[in-house]
Design a protein that fits this description.
This is Xylosyl- and glucuronyltransferase LARGE1. The chain is α/β, with parallel strands linked by helices. The chain is built from 25 helices and 25 strands. A hairpin with a 2-residue loop joins strand 1 and strand 2.
Length: 756
């Protein structure tokens, strides 16, 4: 209150000064215009040099007065500027401050007010403003476990990155699944001035597993209690966030609140905005003890160094043990224990204004803590209903969340000017490789794509599969874009084994895919399909990168390298597993060929046997794949022999051969220089041949290509002469590389190409 009064006095003084100075100025001028008790005219007519009253003395006085007038006018202008600035900073006009010094509305640290349950006001009209240095690193801790939580973390991180102007250090307490997903994501995201460290959540389970917890977050919902032990000993303070948080402002504003902590305050929390801890939600409702409404732990400011000195670990353990004797379990995970500790030690908490954690669960008082949605800082989707929660402004909140959900994460790779980033080996190597390319080269964009790092989100949906114990298991590998989503259900009906798919999507398309998959009974009924999102960047479809991503995350000993627009025959999965044993793939270098056919009909009665397929082939309903346009691609399969074959047979490599094969998981990767349409599979089969793989055709296996509209890349290949020239150049360079790697044995590829 004292600060408020001082501010109003300063404002009033500035106003009076602005009003008084012009009057004083003109009195001074008027008094100065008398000489010997008579008025001295300053009019041009009466001040002529030939006038008898004109003297050198009066001329100097006149010039002196003019200078003084200009000085006073300048002072007036300065005062007006100061007054307008003071008005702009007044509470009725303030909407937030995005400068280096962040304006922070006050919470309260008064323990008497806390005991009385007084809710902190949302603003303080003046006072010293805390400062966050320009390049000060902000530390953020998040507990994350599983596939769904990993998706939520990405949206949270996007909202933080969008507003931030400081370096960030994320401390992720993650299980093995979340660590694999998020480590790959951040590694391929390559955001400057962002560091990520992981802490094994599974190793922390023993610290909290003794606490029964009914909350849907499970054991991971208790791990914020052990952050003082988990995080580095030299880390003094950290902002702790739930995964279902969305930021609407710069996180540095929240970091600045640490400067307001006084005395023994070590926890920054927002009051709980529901009646849960009041115990009146239903009959016999018995919550854990809390101070008033209690506090929500979706957003926490932790002073780690002081907590350690206070022996926080011992404090919360003793409290939990005591309360569990009567409560038997927690209902809201760590939040119950935090509140029980605060109930006994109210001096520990600094109450944050409620807009730092607007809780959108049903039956909350969140609407009472803001006048306008633009005042909000942090939105917390802390209801199991998430986006379906009831709130009069829910459409605004939902749109804000969806904005970050679908926001292009590549745009967040911006540098923080004036803040040097830590040296990153991968980034430096990438820059070196790109600098060696000739930008005047007509094929520069093709060459550049080979080095492009695409942001990758592994296991976008829940995945659960344990490979067969007999070491014969086979995973179908394919890649696709948004226009081939309709093939997924059909493939799942034809192939019951595990599948590894790489999807090339934008952020918005990834959400469309998520909704599509969640609405499909067929896809939701399959937990052995791994969906890996590779986010769009650049002008080419990186087909071989996608294949490599899908191959890299195969968990079975063998892979069936297919394409998304092929349907495998019914029962192919089991047939391939038997063939693996029959041909001893485990101990030999063999590539088992699955013969490929195609239909021009969108509605096809799929053949259930080889005999039925041969009949359809004779009737013209089916054709050997690309028979009309690219015979060389599959001619070496020898379809004439296949018609009557009853046992596997070997074929030799020929130029442009590109069959679909089953190989061991340790086979070579696809060459990334080939993008879009042309030579992407041909080069891989050539590499297999160079490594002395035997090509074995399976006599009772087949797959059928389903018709679809031409891809954008094949259209470019057919219509763009430069595209074809660059593809030819890349082919020649690949063959030269093969010669260098495999020596004399690779000469046949050059000869075969010249003869073809």
């Amino acid at each position: 209150m004292l600060g408020v009064c001082r501010g109003r006095r300063k404002f009033l003084a500035a106003s009076l000064t602005l009003l008084c100075i012009p009057a004083i100025t003109w009195l001074y001028l008027f008094a100065g215009s008398f000489e010997d008790g008579k008025p001295v005219s300053l009019s041009p007519l009466e001040a002529q040099p030939h006038s008898p009253r004109y003297t050198a003395s009066s001329q100097r006085e006149r010039e002196s007065l003019e200078v003084r007038v200009r000085e006073v006018e300048e002072e007036n202008r300065a005062l007006r500027r100061q007054l307008s600035l003071a008005q702009g900073r007044s509470p009725s006009h303030r909407r937030g401050n995005h400068s280096k010094t962040y304006s922070m509305e006050e919470g309260t640290g008064d323990s008497e007010n806390l005991r009385a349950g007084i809710v902190a006001g949302n603003s303080s009209e003046c006072g010293q403003q805390p400062v966050v240095e320009k390049c000060e690193t902000i530390h953020v801790a998040i507990v994350c476990a599983g596939y769904n939580a990993s998706r939520d973390v990405v949206t949270l991180v996007k909202s933080v990155l969008f507003h931030r102007r400081n370096p960030l250090h994320f401390h992720l307490i993650a299980d093995s699944i979340a660590e694999q997903i998020l480590a790959t994501l951040f590694q391929t995201w390559m955001v400057p001035a962002v560091r990520v460290d992981f802490y094994n959540a599974d190793e922390l389970k023993s610290e909290v597993s003794w606490i029964p917890n009914k909350h849907y977050s499970g054991i991971y919902g208790l791990m914020k209690l052990v952050l003082t032990k988990t995080l580095p000993a030299n880390l003094e303070r950290v902002i702790v966030l739930d995964t279902d948080i969305t930021f609407a402002t710069d996180i540095a504003e929240l970091w600045a609140v640490f400067h307001k902590f006084k005395g023994q305050q070590v926890l920054g929390l927002v009051e709980n905005q529901s009646d849960w801890y009041l115990g009146n939600l239903w009959k016999n409702h018995r919550p854990w003890p809390a101070l008033g409404r209690g506090y929500n732990t979706g957003v926490i400011l932790l002073l780690l160094d002081k907590l350690r000195k206070m022996k926080w670990e011992q404090m919360w353990r003793l409290t939990a043990e005591r309360e569990l004797m009567g409560m038997l379990s927690t209902s809201l995970a760590d939040q119950d224990i935090f509140n029980a500790v605060i109930k006994q030690n109210p001096f520990l908490v600094y109450q944050l204004p409620c807009f730092w954690n607007v809780q959108l669960s049903d039956h909350t008082r969140s609407e009472q803590c803001y006048r306008d949605v633009s005042d909000l800082k942090v939105i917390h989707w802390n209801s199991p209903k998430k986006l379906r929660v009831k709130n009069k402004h829910v459409e605004f909140f939902r749109n804000l969340y969806l904005t970050f959900l679908e926001y292009d994460g590549n745009l967040l790779r911006r540098e923080l000017f004036g803040c040097p980033s830590e040296a990153d080996v991968n980034s430096e190597n990438l820059q070196k490789q790109l600098s060696e390319l000739d930008e005047d080269d007509l094929c520069y964009e093709f060459r550049r794509e080979r080095f492009t790092v695409h942001r990758t989100h592994l296991y976008f949906l829940h995945y659960e599969y344990e490979p067969a114990s007999d070491n014969t298991d086979v995973t179908l590998v394919a890649q696709l874009s948004m226009d081939r989503l309709q093939m997924l259900e059909a493939i799942c009906k034809h192939w019951e084994g595990p599948v590894s798919l790489a999807l090339y999507l934008s952020d918005a398309e990834a959400q469309q895919f998520l909704r599509y998959a969640q609405g499909s009974e067929v896809l939701m009924g399959r937990h052995n399909v791994a969906y890996h999102i590779v986010y769009k960047e650049g002008q080419f479809y990186p087909v071989n990168l996608l294949r490599n991503v899908a191959m890299k995350h195969v968990g079975t000993p063998y892979m069936f390298l297919s394409d998304i627009d092929f349907l495998p025959m019914y029962g192919l999965y089991e047939y391939l597993r038997k063939s693996v044993i029959q041909l001893d793939l485990a101990n030999t270098k063999k590539a088992m060929i699955v013969p490929a056919f195609e239909t021009l009909r969108y509605r096809l009665s799929f053949p259930k046997s080889k005999a039925e397929l041969l009949s359809m082939l004779d009737m013209g309903t089916l054709f050997t794949f690309r028979y009309h346009v690219w015979t060389k691609g599959h001619a070496p399969t020898n379809f004439a022999k296949w018609r009557t074959a009853t046992t596997p047979y070997q074929v030799e490599w020929e130029a442009d051969f590109e069959p679909y094969v089953v190989v061991r998981r340790d086979c070579p990767e696809y060459d990334r220089r080939f993008v879009g349409f042309g030579w992407n599979k041909v080069a891989h089969i050539m590499e297999l041949d160079a490594q002395e793989y035997e090509f074995i055709v399976l006599p009772n296996a087949y797959m059928i290509h389903m018709p679809h509209a031409p891809s954008f890349d094949i259209t470019k290949f057919r219509s763009n002469k430069q595209y074809r020239i660059c593809l030819k150049t890349l082919k020649e360079e690949f063959q030269q590389d093969m010669s260098r790697r495999y020596g004399f044995a690779a000469l046949k590829y050059l000869t075969a190409e010249n003869n073809s």
